[in-house]
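Support request, please re-run this one:
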Amino acid sequence: MYNKPSYKFKKDDVFISYLQANPKYKIYFYLNDAKINNGLDMGKLHETDTLSVFSNNQTGSTLKPFLEKDSNKPLHFFNDSKAKSTWENLSEGEQYIGSYLDVTSSLTKEYIIKNAGTASLITGVTTQSTIDKLGSLKNVYNYYRYLSPYFDFDEYIAENDGLAKSDDDHPTPVPNYLNFIEIPRLYKGNKVKEGSLVLSFYYTGSLVAEARDTNRNGIIYETTGSNTGNVIGTVLYPEGLILITASYSLNTAIKDGYLSPLVTASKDSSWIDQPRWAHFMSHRAYITATASAADLTYAPASSSYTIEFEGETVVPTHTMLCHADKNDLVWSNNPTFVEKKSEFSGNSYEEIFVVASGSKQYKESEQISIKNIVSSSYNNYSASFDPTTYISKIGVYDEDGDLIAVANLATPVKKTTKQDYTFKLKLDL
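Re-run finished. Output below.
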């Protein structure tokens, strides 16, 4: 490693801007299966609806942290004896590769069914934790009342603030079915983009009904189907929460196993119902696609669904201007910058250019000359000397002198005394 010139950023050389991105998703759901964009992501298979923080589906790789062994900067943070031993056995400059605790997210659906006036705890369909969440929704739901009167928790979601009237009871939902669909932060970013939500309900591949937030205020209307114009529920865009309350039948002539549980149970005719918006995204069951035809009648095997939406992510971008002025950066400590004459031998700098070195002296050869790389258009004619370097990398250092980022130029840039350059570096945080 050779000493490199360094410059401090000036006041106007560093600034932060913000980039807003709206990633678009279309997620397909069918019998224990969910896929993003029909299972394709920029030409790569992605046959789940799971997003990962550190995995890159386009390259098939996983991001991993690493440390480069540097004896000048000893580390003392290894608590694990095996990791410490691995670090100590590394050679200078070798990398210690670690791993991140991966973070993944998928869309989730939770059900509350009203039975005998209260929320019903049904094994494999409705859990106690789902019922307990009901009361926690009141404040955030009512907050959006300025957008529409439909954001009235007591009138449209649950009575008594979503709380049980006694210790032995459950909360009392207003509709017969409550369907909660959560869009996690990995999908939505800061929020779901207003007006981008589209819900589609299919039966044997044919569209039964479709719903959208046509007014961009969080109220979801049926836009295709036999009940066009009906309100089917609401969406809380910043929270990424869809609440479907409509329980009317979409088609009385067809049925499916929408209430099939996630745990093994004796098959029951109560699992089978007509398609309703409340059953939207009911695609999971303990009965799989490989089951017999008789068993599949109890599973949601004929229905499929899609959810379309756009997220909204604001990315802070650190922009840095790096200047290479005239007459600057036209020299180098790299041995290739000087001319290696035939009378010198060896490969290292000392072997080639140092005449004497010791505790009292350090003497370089007086015959060292800078290599002239300027070419001439004429045969057997040497062009006039002009100091020339090539800029291939730009390193960014913190106030302690530690390298925190490296910008690699696609093609090295030729630098002479007569040229000046400004390099624009962008770092997304």
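The helical segments are 81-88, 128-133, 138-143, 153-156, 185-188, 293-296, 349-353. Residues 338-386 form one domain.
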